[in-house]
What does this fold into?
Amino acid sequence: MNMPDQASSVLDISFPLQVPLRHTGESRKILVKAVEEALSLLGESVAEMVFYNLERSFSLNRNNIVDKPDHFLKALYSMFGSGAAIVEKIIVKSICETFEIRSLNPSTFCDCVEIVKNRER
It folds into this structure.
């Protein structure tokens, strides 16, 4: 019997927010919103707990996760352990759908942030 992969079933989620890239401030807000939406899929209280812990334990607020994506990932792995890989995939999918990133296949949050920043140039 072939069991479905749980990770892939989790990632079969569509995100309604698809907007064209505008200027830096706008793209930052949209990136943060995509992360918020992805984390909210785990539950509103989970998303709030993540943001609370990011600020309290890792000195990262919602806006600096875009400036410090590697710190954000380290914090996720600290909070979720190996489960952070699934959380990161959900966030990557949200960003890719939001920014309509199709030509490249980014595998990490850092890749996604870099692609969005390169589009701004």
Summary: The two ends are 50 Å apart (CA to CA). Helices lie at 6-10, 24-40, 44-58, 64-67, 69-80, 84-98, 109-120. The chain has a mean pLDDT of 82.
